[in-house]
Please model this.
Amino acid sequence: MLFDIYVICLLFVVGILTGMVSVIIGLKGPLKIKEYFNCCDNCNNIYKWYELIPIVSFFISRGECHYCKKELSMMYPVLEIISGMLFSFSYMIYGFSYEMMIMIILTILSLIIYVSDFKYYVILDGPLFLFSIIILAMKFTVFGFETFLISFCSGILIFIFMMIIRYIGNRIFKQESLGGGDIKLSMLFGFMLGIRLSIVSLVIGSFLAFPCAVYYSLTDKSREIPFGPFLVTGLYLVFVFMEPINSFLSIIFK
Model:
């Protein structure tokens, strides 16, 4: 019991630190800033290490940049706390396991996509490529070559399926209907979940995005829909509730 509490607290701290890095990558990665990730977005002054302590630094500085006094977004401490909680929950739900590691990967990836896609309408290729390699390597290590091959082929098939959807959508709406980042993200779905659960994830993500699409169509038709956050939320939900979803699908398609 004491060991579990220690691990949960440790993962919470690691999750907060990882959340801070994920938010910075999501904010500055699309701008292709190679250095000075630890600088203010407004005045570009470089923060000292003690000014980068997650959550604590934000409240000590009263939510302002130490140099230019620009108000900082509450997004920073909120996402850092959420990241820490999800890291801890991954152990509470799965213990030390393959599923725990996948949930941690999903948490990191989700934070990056939420920030980058909502702010810039961009899903970074680097994190998608890195986590795809990690997931496939874990599949091979934990489950063997056959599962690895099935997962790899599932990802490719989902990618092709989404490319077809994009082609049809472009023809119907006479404009870009699906971003390249969304299609690459869907390939990771296949790597992680296989074809059947990937389709379920895409459907759930689409339903989650539907109210946003209706709102934009009524208020600002020229505005794009950041589809990535909804897709990755669908992926997260399907992964966490994989067993009941599989049981339901087995009954439906029996």
